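Protocol step 4 of 6: structure prediction from sequence.
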Amino acid sequence: MPPDHPQDDVPTVVGPGEGPRGGRDREQEHIEDQQREVRARLKAIDGLRDDGVISDDEYRKARDITLLGPAGAAAASGPPQLPSGTGGTGAGGRPTWLVPAAAAGGVVALVVLIVALALTLGGGDSASGYADQVSGPVDQLNSSAASVGSALASVAQPSDLPGLRRTAAGALGKANGAQLSVAKTTPPGDQTTTQQKLLSAIGTYRDYLMGLERAATAPATSAQPLIGKVTARAAATRTAFIGATAANQSLSFDTLLSAGLGSTSALTSVRRDQAAAARKKQAAAAAAAAAAAAAADAARVRTGYSFQSPTGNLRCEDQGSDLFCSAANADFAVYLPSGASPYTGSGTAAGGEVVPYGGTWRSPSGSFTCTSAEDGITCRNSIGYGFFLNRDTYRPM
């Protein structure tokens, strides 16, 4: 590797008999102008080498031509050794190292041509050079997108959702790593905008993956809005990566762009079916719970001095020695003594607590017990006499 910035070794030349700060004649000024010009050329060549625009071999050749001239560069067997101090002088006090450069009238033009050509080639190569710098993260992004697209395409039933969620989580990890790698990359000056667009695109892709992971994990009944957001983020991701490739056509995201990230129709269908099944299951559970509650309510024994059927058409009241029941629509009544068989009459009993179908009522004294059913009520006294009654039928027992 050539020494860094050796143009600082170019000596300061003074005329015969003069100190560094003595008076300058025209020839001395001319020499110093040439020295400044050579230093500027060397600095430009060093910059090209530092930026990676030219190789080490090209760097040496350019310096040899600048310092020795074309003929001297051809004869040189290695990097020129610059004199220190005032250096050797030729006729008229001119430094011997500068004579070939001054004598070669085409040196300036040649160096300018080399610099211009190198800059031109360097500008053209910076796009592909930057693409090479970020090739690893680009491969990660393309690979992760291919996996996600494949997982989306394979979704056919609810049991496929955990696999999709794991794939999205793994792709998110790769996207995070790619974003960190790109952020650590130092782009060439004309690729700063490309890097910004690339980082922005990766951020959009990460948002898409996080949304997809949530959509595959959320309860089925709340997944549909999340899937809508995923579809929108997939479109935004595509637009963002197209923008990055427009800034640098050497970047290739063909796999990511064709992976089908926005193809969520299968996911939508599975989630819709899963939500319908969940709602049906919830309805069945609610019905079962209601039935159990009704059964528990029916099993509870009511006590009090009166009761009525759920329709209110059949009513009974405890009158102490008798149980008085009526069918309101027929103005028909039955009397059941506590120690004898029933007999009929007329009138309307007072209503009370509703006894549901399948439920039981018992008088406070324990002398009378009645059960309620959809087809009527059945009542008995403590010694076994009783009756069946509805609005159309009376049957003593």
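Step 5 (inspection) to follow. Residues 134-274 form one domain.
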